[in-house]
Each structure stands twice: as structure tokens, then as C-alpha cells.
């Protein structure tokens, strides 16, 4: 049996609550399939660890993680720890150290999911955003001069390398070709006359190698408007780190809310572990109440299965999430229900078994 070694970092706030349900689903998948399994190792890193040790993770944390096949992250952030510390000293250091340069974010309106837009059908919101995940505006390059003085100056540099731009844009073209979908480039070249002009040039250069892929280019402000007014325009979207961060949260808002937003941080060459996470944050206001929605965590588990080559199981999990939503009997309060986090996870596991047996034509009796 193939064993996948998974490093689990439940993190802060609702992170441990939702990650437990994703682990539960993955264990059920391996039990039903029988050809592969998971070996989970839990790491107690995050803001609580920081408050006790002055670090978000141990100094050798990256060395501890590098031998795993994947990382499953719950959430990062808590009151009392500045956001730039919780982000840069755990999440971003993992992304950068393991060259997870692709951030893959599905924006898909599932059957039964709430949508704030009127007149929108399920098939109108079905896109994947390919976000550059290692440099750009989040490269961490800059200066802070004359701190605390009247002439204080802060400089934040955005870093766009040819290698960095080419590899994420090529990944998006390959995905669009594989899935026979359109590709939309989102930038802001009219205002950012170096970085985004360069980005657009690289997009056009690589595009000449993919004459079969139909492409569009939009400024980020126009893209934001069309995400809301005409989401059916988009199938595969490629964009920079900052713009991707903002657009995907907007995408989550139109596709059921943050409780249904999953993300994958990929090292496509598999030289290092990739990382999978719900992207709703730690939600400290509801932490410990057992009402956090675990469906995004379960969705990110399906992304992990896709990455490992078990796409059929990934599809089954998405179908199970849709069944949870459409039946409406076991939903957390954010979706109008009264169920607990673990009850939603249990329902998903139960439906997973039924879906598997149905697909296999097994007799439950």
C-alpha cells in the first residue's frame, strides 16, 4: 500500500477544528480505496507556540517538514500576535522555502451553495485562479528609513523575475490546454509601468507557444467588476501574487463564502512538499464554539488527492460537499444551519461511504 506522509499544522483559532474533519475524510477515503493510506504527523506550531517560545515554529521547522509528501495547514493568526509575524514566520516561509510558486484556487459555485448574485446559474461560476505565489508584491523586499522621525520613509518593492513570471504563466497555459478552457490574464500595466508591462509581455511571449488556447487580458479593476457582473467570462485566470490574493477572496464571496474556499500551494516539480489549506483564516471570534464550517478544509483535502494523482477521489469529495449543501440537513450556522463542525464532517464521511458503494455497485445490505 502506498503511504503518503502528511505534516499537519492545525494552527490557530478554528484551524484545529476544521482540519480534524479533513483528516477524518482522508482517512475514510484511504479505508475505502485500500490501495493507499496516510501517515499524519501533527505539529503544534502557530501563534500559541509563538507566545510560549517567541517563534511561530522551531528554527529547524523547515528541515522537519521537507521529508513529508504534503503539508495540511489549518489557519494562522490570533489576537496578540501581529499579522505580519504570524504570516511571514510560518505560512510565507513555508511557501518560499519549498518553492510553492503556484497558488491554485478553485472558484466554483457548487450545487446548493449560497450565492449573493442574482440571476446567476451554477455553471456561470466555474473557474480556477492560478496565482503567482513566491514573489511579486509579497517578495518581502524593501526598506524602512528614518523610523519614528518626521521624514520617515517606507519602500516596498515588488519583485518580478523572468523565471518567476514564465513558470506560473506557463503552468496556466498548460492547464488551459489540458482542460480545453480559456485563459484570462489579469494585470495593471497602465499604472505599474515596469512590473505589469513585463508580466504582460511574458504572457504574450509564452502565448505564442499555445496557439490553441484562447486568451483574454484584463486590468485588475475591470476583472474585479466582471467577477461580479459577468463571472461566466472566466475559466482559467492567471495573475500576480497581490492581485490573486484579492481576486480569489472576491471569488470566494460569490461562490458560497469563505467557508467554501480552498487553496493549494504547489511545487509542481515535487522537489519539495506542497501545502493544502482552507483559506478562511483563524476566525478567533468563533474559535472553540464548534461552529466553524469544515467544508473548505475538506475541499482542500480533495485538492491534495488531485495532486497525488487520485483525481477520481477528488471528484467524489466535491460531489459529497455538494450533497451536504443540497440536502441542507447538516450545515454550520454560516450556511443557515445549526450543526457543529464535527457533525458536518461526520455527514461527509457517511455520504462518502455511500457514494463509494454506489459507484462500485456494492450492496450495502
What is the mean predicted local confidence, pLDDT?
A: 95
Instruction: Output the radius of gyration.
Output: 21 Å
Q: What is the rounded distance between the termini?
A: 28 Å
CATH C-level name of the largest domain: Alpha Beta
CATH superfamily of the largest domain: Isopropylmalate Dehydrogenase
As a percent range, the share of strand residues is: 15-25%
Helix content: 40-55%
Structural class: alpha/beta
- Total domain units: 2
The number of helical runs is: 11
Q: Based on Cα principal axes, name the global outline.
A: globular
CATH topology of the largest domain: Isopropylmalate Dehydrogenase
Order of helices and strands: EHEHHEHEEEEHEHEHEHEEHHH
Supply the CATH architecture of the largest domain. Answer: 3-Layer(aba) Sandwich
* Adjacency order of strands in the biggest sheet: 2-1-3-12-11-4-5-10-8-9
Family: Belongs to the isocitrate and isopropylmalate dehydrogenases family.
Organism: Youngiibacter fragilis 232.1
Keywords: Manganese, Metal-binding, NAD, Oxidoreductase
InterPro entries: ICDH/IPMDH, IsoCit/isopropylmalate_DH_CS, IsoPropMal-DH-like_dom, TTC_DH
Detailed description of the structure:
There is one protein chain. It is built from eleven helices and twelve strands. With 365 residues, the chain is an alpha/beta fold. It folds into two domains: 1-108 and 256-365, Isopropylmalate Dehydrogenase, CATH 3.40.718; 115-254, Isopropylmalate Dehydrogenase, CATH 3.40.718.10. A ten-stranded mixed β-sheet has the order 2-1-3-12-11-4-5-10-8-9, with helices on both faces. The chain has a two-stranded antiparallel ribbon with strand order 6-7. A hairpin with a 7-residue loop joins strand 6 (136-145) and strand 7.
Amino acid at each position: 500500500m502506498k503511504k503518503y506522509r502528511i505534516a499537519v499544522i492545525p494552527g490557530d483559532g478554528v484551524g484545529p477544528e476544521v482540519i480534524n474533519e479533513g483528516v477524518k475524510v482522508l482517512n475514510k477515503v484511504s479505508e475505502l480505496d485500500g490501495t493507499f493510506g496516510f501517515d499524519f504527523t501533527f505539529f503544534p506550531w502557530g501563534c500559541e507556540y509563538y507566545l510560549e517560545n517567541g517563534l511561530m515554529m522551531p528554527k529547524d521547522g523547515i528541515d522537519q517538514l521537507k521529508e513529508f509528501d504534503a503539508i495540511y495547514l489549518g489557519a494562522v493568526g490570533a489576537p496578540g500576535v501581529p499579522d505580519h509575524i504570524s504570516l511571514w514566520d510560518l505560512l510565507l516561509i513555508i511557501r518560499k522555502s519549498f518553492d510553492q510558486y503556484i497558488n491554485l484556487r478553485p472558484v466554483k459555485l457548487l450545487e446548493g451553495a449560497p450565492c449573493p448574485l442574482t440571476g446567476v446559474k451554477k455553471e456561470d461560476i466555474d473557474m480556477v485562479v492560478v496565482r503567482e505565489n513566491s514573489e511579486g508584491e509579497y517578495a518581502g523586499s524593501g526598506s524602512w528609513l528614518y523610523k519614528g522621525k518626521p521624514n520617515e520613509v517606507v519602500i516596498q518593492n515588488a519583485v518580478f523575475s523572468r523565471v518567476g513570471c514564465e513558470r506560473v504563466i506557463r503552468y496556466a497555459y498548460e492547464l488551459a490546454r489540458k482542460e480545453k478552457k480559456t485563459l484570462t490574464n489579469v494585470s495593471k500595466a497602465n499604472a505599474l509601468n515596469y512590473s505589469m508591462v513585463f508580466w504582460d509581455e511574458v504572457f504574450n511571449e509564452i502565448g505564442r507557444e499555445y496557439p490553441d488556447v484562447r486568451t483574454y487580458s484584463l486590468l485588475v479593476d475591470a476583472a474585479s467588476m466582471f467577477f461580479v457582473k459577468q463571472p461566466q467570462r472566466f475559466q482559467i485566470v492567471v495573475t500576480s501574487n497581490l492581485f490573486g490574493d484579492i481576486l480569489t477572496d472576491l471569488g470566494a464571496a460569490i461562490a458560497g463564502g469563505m467557508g467554501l474556499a480552498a487553496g493549494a500551494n504547489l511545487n509542481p516539480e515535487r522537489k519539495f512538499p506542497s501545502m493544502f489549506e482552507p483559506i478562511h483564516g483563524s476566525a478567533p471570534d468563533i474559535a472553540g464554539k464548534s461552529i466553524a464550517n469544515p467544508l473548505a478544509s475538506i475541499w482542500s483535502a480533495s485538492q491534495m488527492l488531485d495532486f497525488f494523482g487520485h483525481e477520481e477521489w477528488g471528484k467524489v469529495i466535491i460531489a459529497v460537499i455538494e450533497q451536504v449543501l443540497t440536502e441542507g440537513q447538516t450545515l454550520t450556522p454560516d450556511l443557515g444551519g445549526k450543526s457543529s463542525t464535527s457533525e458536518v464532517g461526520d455527514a461527509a464521511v457517511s455520504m462518502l461511504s455511500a457514494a463509494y458503494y454506489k459507484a462500485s455497485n456494492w450492496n450495502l445490505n
